[in-house]
Amino acid sequence: MEHSLLIQSLVAAIFVSISASLLGSFVILKKMALVGDALSHVALPGLAFGLIFNFNPFIGAFLTLFIAVLGIWFLKYQTNLPIDTLVGIFFTASLAIGVLLIPEHDLLEAMFGNIASLTIQETNVLILLSIFIIVLILTIHKKLAINMLSEELAHSANINNKKLEFLYLFIFALAVAIGVRFVGALLMGALVIIPAASSKNISRSLNSYMSWSVIFGIVSAVIGILFSFKFNMSPGPFIIIAGAVLFIISLFFRKLRHY
């Protein structure tokens, strides 16, 4: 039973880490690392409602995240305020509401996740959603790259910047909602950011940057899951620590590359 749960957890974690790492590639390019970390906490009220009213916390997390990104996207074009300012408002309000509503005995799991609590059906759904995110990002990644390079250039290439940015935020909401069930709201931002940051240290092109980001994400996830089963603890902290170690290693390769 434990062996099958380990295999199930590894497969799920690999797909989730791939989707998070690909997303993280563009979070870093868009210089939204801190924004990405803050946005993950917006899931907390949704998790709280799921726990209180006894429905799947993933649904609650996604709904609150989707409402938040919809509000951020709308207000950006209505007020001309930068995205990081708007995310900061939603982040602080959501964090306060979530901490107040989440039952104390469930707070630790909401913050750090618990992959062992997922049913096979939930795991399969999250894997399918991760695959959907992966396909979607790979489909639009060139447009995203052009948009992040220059919105004027994207407009001249007949790219609808508003629609593309909304799609990007939608992907972000879905990926974070999925990842929260694995590493928790507190650490999800790191799952998105660290593999991409490690990849940036050693990559020379967009394709290699995305590829190495995925590799770092997968290795972190596998190491984290294996250690969590060995010590019978939540995998979230182990996954992030593994990612941080890989980031430090990538810094040495970055120095070697510049010699």
Automatic annotation (TrEMBL):
It is a multi-pass membrane protein. Belongs to the ABC-3 integral membrane protein family. It is found in: Cell membrane; Membrane. InterPro entries: ABC_BtuC-like, ABC_TroCD. Its main location: membrane. GO terms for cellular component: ATP-binding cassette (ABC) transporter complex. Keywords: Membrane, Transmembrane, Transmembrane helix, Transport. This is ABC transporter. The chain crosses the membrane at residues 6-29, 49-75, 81-102, 123-146, 166-197, 209-229, 235-253. One of its GO terms (biological process) is response to zinc ion.
